[in-house]
């Protein structure tokens, strides 16, 4: 594990997140989505 910071203010909103296609793989401490993975194409991150 390591400490990292955000370099931009872009986030995915929970209300419009395509849960059928993407899996959330990282969130900030306050719950913002920071990383996702495609459910079918696991190599696309």
Explain this structure.
This protein has strands spanning 22-27, 33-38. It has 45 residues and is an all-beta fold. It has a domain at 9-38. A two-stranded antiparallel sheet has the order 1-2. The protein is globular and about 30 Å long. The mean pLDDT is 82. One of its GO terms (biological process) is L-tryptophan biosynthetic process. Pfam families: GATase.
Poorly predicted spans: none
How far the N terminus sits from the C terminus, by CA atoms, comes to: 19 Å
How many extended strands? 2
Spatial strand arrangement across the major sheet: 1-2
- What is the structural class? mainly beta
Q: Into which percent range does the helicity of residues fall? A: under 10%
- Percent strand: 25-35%
Broad shape? globular
Q: Summarize the main sheet.
A: 2 strands, antiparallel
Q: Strand-and-helix sequence, N→C? A: EE
GO cellular component, one term: cytosol
GO biological process, one term: L-tryptophan biosynthetic process
Keywords: Glutamine amidotransferase
GO molecular function, one term: anthranilate synthase activity
List the helices and strands and how they pair.
Elements: E1 22-27, E2 33-38
GO cellular component, one term: cytosol
Domain Glutamine amidotransferase: 2-42
Protein name: Glutamine amidotransferase domain-containing protein
Please give a quick description of this structure:
Keywords: Glutamine amidotransferase. The chain is mainly β and 45 residues long.
Defining traits:
single chain; 45 residues; mainly beta; glutamine amidotransferase; Class_I_gatase-like; GATASE; Glutamine amidotransferase domain-containing protein; Anth_synth/Amidotransfase
């Amino acid at each position: 594990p390591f400490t990292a910071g955000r370099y931009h203010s872009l986030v995915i909103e929970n209300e419009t997140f395509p849960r059928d296609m993407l899996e959330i793989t990282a969130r900030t401490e306050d719950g913002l989505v920071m990383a996702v993975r495609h459910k079918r194409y696991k190599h696309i991150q």
